[in-house]
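Blackboard transcription, Thursday session:
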Amino acid sequence: MAIPLPVMVSSLKGQVSIAFPSKKPAPPPLLCQKSQAELEILKLATRRKVITRVLSERNEFMASIITDLNIEEEQEMEEIEEEMRAKTESDNNERRIAESWRKIHGEDDWIGMLDPMDPLLRFELIRYGEMAQACYDGFDFDPFSKYCGSCRFNRRRFFERLGMTSLGYEVSRYIYATSNINLPNFFMTSRWPKVWSRNANWIGYVAVSNDETSVRLGRRDITIAWRGTVTRLEWIADLMDYLRPVSSDKIPCPDPSVKVESGFLDVYTDKNKNCRFCKYSAREQILTEVRRLIQQYPNEELSITITGHSLGAALAVLSAYDIVETGLNLTEDGRSVPVNVFSFSGPRVGNLRFKERLEGLGVKVLRVVNVHDTVTKVPGLFFNEHVPEFLQKMADGLPWCYSHVGVELALDHKNSPFLKDTNDPTNFHNLEAHLHLLDGYHGKGKRFVLSTKRDIALVNKAADFLKDHHLVPPFWRQDENKGMVRNYEGRWVQPERPKLDDHISANWF
Amino acid sequence: MAIPLPVMVSSLKGQVSIAFPSKKPAPPPLLCQKSQAELEILKLATRRKVITRVLSERNEFMASIITDLNIEEEQEMEEIEEEMRAKTESDNNERRIAESWRKIHGEDDWIGMLDPMDPLLRFELIRYGEMAQACYDGFDFDPFSKYCGSCRFNRRRFFERLGMTSLGYEVSRYIYATSNINLPNFFMTSRWPKVWSRNANWIGYVAVSNDETSVRLGRRDITIAWRGTVTRLEWIADLMDYLRPVSSDKIPCPDPSVKVESGFLDVYTDKNKNCRFCKYSAREQILTEVRRLIQQYPNEELSITITGHSLGAALAVLSAYDIVETGLNLTEDGRSVPVNVFSFSGPRVGNLRFKERLEGLGVKVLRVVNVHDTVTKVPGLFFNEHVPEFLQKMADGLPWCYSHVGVELALDHKNSPFLKDTNDPTNFHNLEAHLHLLDGYHGKGKRFVLSTKRDIALVNKAADFLKDHHLVPPFWRQDENKGMVRNYEGRWVQPERPKLDDHISANWF
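(Written on the board underneath:)
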């Protein structure tokens, strides 16, 4: 049997003693035998010990950071070369954007740019698609969150929190809509009693390119991005299939036969006087903001690019039309700021007269769709732009004859070898899947080849669409512990958000 | 109209120029106009710029850490007082544990300690319950993970990663079982083709108290914790309700009428020669480890405490019996190390003869149950310890007469005002709910009052059981992005685990 060796036994009270391990370890000294003075000393000793521990932990932490940083530095240097190559390529793209942005923006109705697919247009479509996707990634749709229905991030750090700093835009305003309307399956409400708002939902944002990006883009770009539905398609069932004149909702159109789907008009124009987030309608919020921004950059070349997915695509078309119809895109010196829409998986919005009026006003719409998606077939499943025009004209008095607008870029998810065969219509409608399809699209009948290094894992962020062998879990985008954090007491709580929004006033008219 | 002010325009190529904003921003210089030498200079400039940016980001990062640390320091100092008070209280508890651990360990069959509930016993039951809970919190049960069925953490950092460093134990061995047996609904397998193992599941661990903790506990404690089922109760349906002599599986029992449920015996003794994780059975793994540990601490007071929840509780009882039956708890100098089980929501394990043999060998079992839980009523729903003893003896030849062992501590979730009224049997069976019930339990018919600051939010970690007004989301324990991380290329991937385990060999016999 081994001879017992002395071991250092350090008790919690800061004392260190030498003990010989015996059958039973020595009991620690009893507190009750100490005098008050000794107690005070013990207290101080403990205090010192805790501080020492804290400091030592800090030092270790700092040391580990420095080590990490050194390793990172080497890697970073190696990556610089690669980065420079990519930068040169992307710079070339960007310089070409500065030169040809008007064509990309639809000046010539994208004639000759879709087949074969123009690489610059693809690049830009993905970029704006990612700005629409940001509306989903930033949205708090957890019904068990106190902030369900709001944006998860502060406006000023929106792109930063989404890892999109390199985009070079700043969010200038968040857009809210009132949820008390006829599309109950579109809006999210918290199940908790105490919530940030019972009436409002965050529905998008207005962003502006910063100085550096504006140089690269050849103009100062104002982007409006509209959020769609989170994953479910139930909201389609809520569409009333009922057209209403836009002029009935104070959009100043001289022609009362210009009509759009009643539900979209509701989301766009409804408000709630008692809610600080939606006492102005979404319409009023964006018109106010667009006017403010146009006045802020009086001597610059400007563009207005509106994007959105699903119901957000409908709002993109509607708001683009409204901005031009209202004449808000005219500068003080009489220039007309071009307004364009890049829409993804959008439903039909209005009737044939709406389409004619919109296009007559010079609003350019490029609609990216997946041919298997049902959402782009509603409303107006039977009476639509495919019906002979004389019939459309005849049916124009009827409330259910809809027409798509602009130019369509039709993709087909069955062409991507990365996607699995599913029957889930939410997959066909998924925005990330569309961006993946764009990345591989080179023209009708052309082979699907990814043209950038765009990460295919993004497809499964909120879907189960990638083939299994890519080893990407379905629906993988989630917060650690549903956003719960430990507070100073060590308890798990939902953190408060210090400030929900900071500019909800200001009226445009 | 305002006079345009000059602005600094810095292009991506590291040049800074002064420009007057005009209607159209100045186009960036064209790369093709540069000579090769200029290109090299540009390259170097970019490199310098990137490094400068990296360094500046680092400095900002370090500065922000230092600020954070200063704020933390103040808070920490404030918390020291509170910590000291808590420490004193917990020290007092611990000193009393060192003095009375044999009673808590069941020396006197917990007579007089359960009603009213002994605070020290409650403290210890929660502590061991949390060690059983760690088997769930550490388990990778995501079928889309490459490591599904394994432990999420490296053995050496197990408690650290679970925020349980203050427990003062070290995991000395992980336990694996083969999943190719008759309890298909118990084991988890990955849906991916490439996995860490097709045959093994991590099923628990052996841990030892460190020197400091051993002083506090009054002995060196060897804890074995067994994992149960993740949330579903389907595995109950797989129980064959068939008793098998333990001696048939080489547990050296002289009495062939000592029988246990066949399924539990399978999990405990089956192995798979072709798998590096389960080429030894769970039984062989723990017996090897227990023998090694007893030899490692030859001159110390020791205890063996076995804990587990659900099926883990059955394995706890079975392994406790086995260790004593095999004589593994005897030291070289002839002392007998006390073996005890703290089980949670455990089913019946064996027949009356098993119970008699186990108790005759001096194994002390305290079973914490919720009276509404069905799992503790199986197997042996009809023939069990409630049947008159003569009938049990008569039925002893039959394969379906089971008996609970040890002492029961019956809790009732309906007594907790924090829990909502549900009909979900998985809630009644949930381990975190049991720990919450223990915290408020003071004796039969006594009012439910939480005795510690134990966080009630833990109840909803993997359940929907707390009343809504506590604002704790159901099933909130989850990894950020399902464990996906961005690799050096910026792609989202499942990270590889550098080393799955480090001691799978060593045979005990």
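Lecturer's comment: The first strand of chain B starts at residue 7 and ends at 10.
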